[in-house]
Amino acid sequence: MINFLVIGDVIGRPGRNILTEGLSILRSQKKIDILLVNGENVAGGFGITRKTYSYLVDKLGVDVITLGNHWHDKPEVDELTSLEDSRLVVPYNAKGIKEGVSAGVGYRIFTTRQGLQYVVMNVLGKVFMNPETRSPFESVELMLQDPVVQKVAIKLLDVHAEATSEKQGMGFYFASRCSIIYGTHSHVPTSDERILEDHAGFITDIGMTGGYDSVIGMKKSRAIERMLSGTHNKLEPSKKDGWLCALYCSVEEDGRCSKIERIQMRLSNLQ
Ligand SMILES: [Fe+2]
Ligand SMILES: [Fe+2]
Is 70 a catalytic residue? Predict the structure, then answer.
């Protein structure tokens, strides 16, 4: 059995600080074998840098980092995906995947300290996002047909999508073939965690880890001003009302999720 702790979108420095504080509490309460984070907003809210990658992996011990539509906001991500022991998984159907970035596109296979293999897949939704994106259903189907993926029983899928309907459709469609299917991107947690088809742990969206006194993680005054004026003034991560949102799942060796728990912690240290 593997116990996975999955963290949704981490928003900038306040998100990293909340994660650091929250993890020290969670690690004293729960047995966490593998830690996953969605890192598409970890660098100032936009993308991932060498420094923030190292903070997650080297300081916090994150095992796998999935990304999303902001995957390439910081071009140094190309270098990070090609590291020999890279933990990054880029969405299979991300727009503008650079030539040369092939490792870690769509999925990557990892091994636990006990020698158990698991695969982590990442895909973007299409509804209310870029209509030119390749279908997430078709994308995941192609990954699952890969003989290398087929050999691994434990499969996790980050569905980085805007529409709740699309995420639930993906959940039911792939439930018998995945161990955990979790939504990210909306930055708001849903409370519908459950096990689908007696096989896959599922939640429509884990929610962000960041300042909730905000509009989806960004200082609310600036975000509202943008909506009122239609201008693109700079957004900045909120430092108020920190929450850590996560999903804690146990997965058996045959790939079935046997336990699912949603975690929401309110924390203070955002500076
Ligand atoms: Fe995000
Ligand atoms: Fe996103």
Answer: yes
CB 150 within 8 A of CB 144: yes
- pLDDT, tens only, 106-139: 999 999 999 999 999 999 999 999 999 999 999 9
The ligand with the least distance to the CA atom of 129 is 2
Report the alpha-carbon distance of residue 49 to residue 73 in Å, rounded: 9
Rounded to an integer, what is the distance from CA 137 to the centroid of its chain?
A: 18
Q: Write the pLDDT tens digit of every residue in 156-175.
A: 999 999 999 999 999 999 99
Q: Do you know the residue count of the chain?
A: 271
The answer to whether the predicted template modeling score (pTM) of the entire model surpasses 0.85 is yes
- Rounded CA gap, 234 and 213, in Å? 17
Hey, what CATH class is 2-267 in? alpha beta
User: From the CA of 147, how far away is ligand 1's center (Å)?
Assistant: 31
Q: 76 C-alpha to center of ligand 1: Å?
A: 18
Distance CA 63, CA 65 (A): 7
Instruction: Return the ligand number nearest the Cα of 38.
Output: 1
